[in-house]
Amino acid sequence: MIRLEQRFQHHSQVVSTELDPSEAVLLHLESQKYYTLNETGSQIWKYLEEGLNLRQITQELQEQYDIGSIEAEKSVLSLIGELESEKLVQSLKAKKG
User: What is the pTM of this model?
Assistant: First the structure.
């Protein structure tokens, strides 16, 4: 189960290209499948690059798009679930100590 406190990173076999501010394309090198991200998905992808956890990403989306917390959480958790199932992202292990 994905939790908002988790951090994810791009899978090492994925390269991304921003087509414009509202769309990005991902290529999984192993499977050779292409994926497209809309504006919100592209923004979430960027936040992952910055190392934000999922809760921080939902907060950023709330401010950027003026949406409620439930809507932001659903969007983030849904996309991360899809990206993880396609092996485009992987969860970072929490550091101990």
Answer: 0.92
